[in-house]
Amino acid sequence: MRHVFKWYLALFLNFSIDLCLCTFNLAHAEQNRTSSILSNGDQIEILQVYIDCVSCDFDYIRHEINFVNFVRDPYLAQVHVLITYQSTASGGRKYSLRLLGRGKFDNVDQTLIYTALQSDTEDIIRQGLVRILKMGLMPYISQTKIASMLDIRYDKARTASLRDQAPDNWQYWVFHIDLQGGIEAEESQRDLEIGVSLRAERITDIWKIKSEVDYEYQQEDFKDEDEKITGRRKEWEVDVELVKSLNAHWSAGLFGAYQSSTYKNIYYHVGLAPGIEYNFFPWQESDHRIFSISYSAGVRAFQYDEMTLYNKTRETLAYGRIRLELGIIQHWGEIDASVENSHYYFDLSKNLLTLETDLSLRITKGLAFKVDLEAESVHDQLYLPKGDATLEEILLRQKKLATTYDVSLMVGLRYSFGSIYNNIVNRRF
Predict the structure, then answer these.
(1) What's the CA gap between 208 and 15, in Å, rounded?
(2) Cβ(417)–Cβ(20) under 8 Å?
């Protein structure tokens, strides 16, 4: 039996090696064939385009833009289109379309902006993106043989109507109200959850004013014969921030907070802190790169529901917070990472260190490496109540328990191969 297993294992390994070599040779031959076409300007007839966007309707893009070849690998493209977006103050989206020239169009780069309103449907958004993308492709299309087959139209009536838009009566203020609730019931168990969120924002190039109020109520009921167990959690959170842009790199702000949480043994907590931030890149480039450092310092006043481990029922503490953030979105991948440390001045060992990383890197043609990491080093649980939590409080998660860390890690690889062209749209079934 052992010899048979070894024979199957050897056969499997040989087959795997042959498959990998075959795949590599096919991909290498395919890339050489495509590169020879792209390197000769006289042979370029149809532009090779790679779309790099995680939230776009790619089928729609391919259907509407049928005068280019969409390739599946960025290393085979003449134009790499990187599409990202940020949420606007009014709840819409501001899309950034970066077109990066390759080969014949090396260093022929451009950035276009498309802004979608909060009220826009997904269909309106994708139409707008395609319209902007078509305009961005024209400088490259003009250098191909297909240029003589295209025409440009101008909507004069629509442009005239845009000039007559009414002024903003809300003066950039935007308000949000979220209400949600749910119930789940069985014969011996019932769960109830209610949530309310109120937000008010006013964001301009100079000022950023945000305030948010959140309330959450959870109740769990369990029935075992004649015994009934009920667990409740209530939390209030209020956050206010006022930030002023000083110049292209510097910002200053004032931050206030209020919290009440039965889960954390906090009857109330009030905090106030001024802060300053510096971005090594201009903030106008925040859609594709950020490298910033910020520091804030202030005071926090606490009153607890129960006496804490440190024999406190109330206290006022001075604290500081330093944060380093890196965000880069390029054709080779995406990095979004931050390190933050909040600490109390009376004892710097009472601190919370937080690391968050979202990494996606292209290693080579068709192969990408992905890492998602969230880690906390927890040493600031001053609010923990004295005494042990009951079994009911632990099982129903009614009390926060002591911990020194909290870690979540996901690592993965993604590999794709096959035909370099993917122009066909087929959405059957």
Answers:
(1) 60
(2) no
The region that residue 200 occupies, defined by phi over 0 for left and psi between -120 and 50 for alpha, beta otherwise, is beta
Among the listed residues 223, 247, 268, 219, the one whose alpha carbon sits nearest the alpha carbon of residue 398: 219
- The DSSP secondary-structure symbol of 262 reads T
Domains and CATH numbers, the chain: 41-146 (3.30.160), 246-415 (no CATH)
How open is the CA angle 184-264-400, to the nearest 5 degrees?
70
Q: Give the residue among 314, 320, 316, 271 at the shortest CA–CA distance from 294.
A: 320
User: What is the amino acid identity at position 52?
Assistant: D
Global pTM value:
0.61
> Are 14 and 56 within 8 A, CB to CB?
no
pLDDT tens string 417-427: 665 555 444 44
Rounded to 5 degrees, φ, ψ at 53 are -155, 130
Distance in Å from the first CA to the final CA of the chain: 46
Distance of CA 146 to the CA centre of its chain: 38
Identify the CA nearest to 176 among candidates 98, 106, 70, 89: 89
Distances (CA, A) of 260 to 160, 210, 216, 302: 53, 20, 11, 10
Q: 348 CB contacts (<8 Å, ≥6 apart)?
A: none
pLDDT at 359 over 70: yes
Which pairing describes strands 250-261 and 227-245: parallel, antiparallel, or unpaired?
antiparallel
Mean pLDDT of 100-129: 85
Task: Report whether pLDDT(25) > 70.
Answer: no
Helix (H) / strand (E) containing 192: strand 189-203
Report which DSSP code applies to 127.
Answer: H
Name the DSSP class of 384: P
| Residue 148 burial (C-beta neighbours within 10 Å; 0-12, 13-18, 19+) | exposed
Residue 61 near residue 76, CB atoms below 8 Å:
no
216 pLDDT more than 50:
yes
Q: What's the pLDDT at 398?
A: 63
Higher pLDDT, 153 or 412: 412
Contact 356, 337 (CB under 8 A): yes
Does residue 6 carry a pLDDT above 50? no
